[in-house]
Specification:
It contains ten helices and 20 strands. β10 and β11 form a beta hairpin. α1 packs parallel to α5 and α2 crosses α10. The protein binds flavin-adenine dinucleotide (FAD).
Length: about 425
């Protein structure tokens, strides 16, 4: 296998355990299943010609420490465990990662209560090294940033999640599994004591399957007989990039105090493992589940979003936030102004457009944006229904959680 990951291997006609989706979650799950069940044949079916093409290849690249999440939630537990495992995995596999730390900055007094709540959550979640800092503490860590108070999380860091996912794919191959790319699963049917997966290469008859299809998770779940609730609504997140001579404006990771009722963390400034400094992402409902360009609109995706009652309930609640997002997406000056709240020297001339990612965000019929990771069952199958940030960080811990569930639900021998 090349360093770029497996390419267009053919899907097997039969396997014991199929994993649909070759993003960081599907590959981590396949790896966990293959390691736990050495006698079982495991195959990954991925629709694109390379693994890790969608969310896994278009994100902030941050190893989150677990500060934000509601204590007791899956996100809280799996992120703290997953971050520790991610650093270890990167070290063992010589994948560049860095524990560079981050500051969360409050710029006005109205944010102080939320900052305090973040600190409480972080401590309850067992985030290592979390520390409250004042204005001078912020400047000491990030000389170009300004704020009235902050939280420093030294255990937050950065990694290349696409490289991690490719390495998981190699682990699957090394344990005797297979990874078929260019292999979109189109239909799912229970057939006696197996599942028949119809895909671009023909069919694979699997004993059981785990579906980890990111932005397409709801469609495959419904095809397998699950409830259509929650639906995936794509949120496009565009990034800017600092021009090289202005990169010194940011030493590591600078984040705002987020609105706790939204699952997004707000526009942040992040140094990447390759030295690039990114600003973003925005969070705008997209016209397609792969809307890497703003103009990309797919009829089916758009209708799925517009016909879902939850979309309108959500918009009724969040219309003013939506308008602010729209202005950031449309006006470079508005986008830069958002980040300049924390780094006042930042100007429009300092940035260039970078890439965009598309978040697969589950939205309930009642208009609730699902905050926690979510899973469901159908006959002979498990489905990952919501795996937004920090799922890349948490991938090894999510895989353990799913593999435990598969062991029980599929009655696999250990
Ligand atoms: C803008 C942005 C910033 C983020 N920042 C961070 C961060 O800093 N830290 C962090 O931890 N997380 C972050 N995340 C979240 C993280 O990227 C995702 O949670 C994670 O990548 C989800 O992985 P996945 O495997 O579920 O999804 P994906 O990577 O999207 O993979 C799903 C795969 O399923 C495949 N698939 C879909 N349908 C089919 C089908 N019918 N047949 C076969 N295959 C199919 C797709 O082609 C795709 O490869 C961010 C996400 C975004 C979008």
């Amino acid at each position: 296998m090349s360093g770029a990951g497996p390419r267009d291997a053919h899907a097997p006609e039969r396997c014991d355990l199929a994993v649909v989706g070759g993003g960081i979650i599907g590959l981590a799950v396949a790896r966990a299943l293959a390691r736990r069940n050495p006698l079982a044949s495991v195959c990954v079916l991925e629709r694109e010609h390379q693994v890790a093409t969608h969310q896994t290849g278009h994100n902030s690249g941050v190893i989150h420490a677990g500060v934000y999440y509601t204590p007791g939630s899956l996100k809280a537990r799996l992120c703290v465990e997953g971050a520790r495992e991610m650093y270890e995995y990167c070290e063992q596999h010589e994948i560049p990662s860095e524990r560079c730390g981050k500051v969360i900055i409050a710029t006005d007094r109205a944010e102080l209560a939320r900052l305090e709540e973040l600190e409480r959550r972080g401590r309850a979640n067992g985030v290592p090294g979390l520390r409250r800092i004042d204005a001078a503490g912020i400047e000491e860590l990030e000389p170009h940033a300004r704020g009235i108070a902050g939280l420093h999380s030294p255990n937050t860091g950065i990694a290349d999640f696409q490289a991690v996912a490719r390495s998981y794919a190699r682990d699957v191959l090394d344990t005797g599994g297979s990874v078929a790319t260019g292999c979109e699963v189109l239909r799912v049917a229970v057939q006696g004591r197996s599942l028949r997966l119809t895909h671009a290469h023909g069919t694979t008859t699997a004993g059981h399957a785990v579906f980890c299809a990111g932005a397409w998770a709801d469609r495959l779940a419904v095809a397998a007989g699950a409830s259509p609730d929650p639906r995936i609504v794509p949120f496009r997140g565009a990034y800017l990039r600092l021009v090289p001579e202005r990169r010194p404006l940011v030493r590591a990771l600078i984040y705002p105090v987020p609105d706790p009722s939204l699952p997004f963390l707000g526009v942040h400034l992040t140094r990447h493992i390759d030295g690039d400094v990114l600003i973003g992402p925005t969070a705008l409902i997209a016209g397609a589940r792969d809307a890497y360009r703003l103009a990309t609109v797919r009829r089916r995706d758009l209708l799925d979003t517009l016909e879902w009652p939850g979309t309108w309930r959500m918009l009724r609640r969040w219309w003013s936030t939506g308008l602010a997002e729209l202005s950031r997406a449309a006006l470079l000056s508005a986008f830069v102004r958002t980040a300049a709240r924390y780094v006042p020297e930042l100007q429009v001339a300092d940035v260039r457009p970078a890439f965009a990612g598309v978040r697969a965000q589950a939205l309930g019929r009642d208009g609730r944006l699902l905050d926690d990771f979510a899973f469901s069952h159908t006959e002979r199958a498990l489905h990952v229904r919501n795996a937004p940030s920090p799922a890349a960080t948490s991938s090894l811990a999510i895989a353990r959680h799913v593999a435990d569930e598969a062991q029980r639900a599929f009655d696999l021998e250990r």
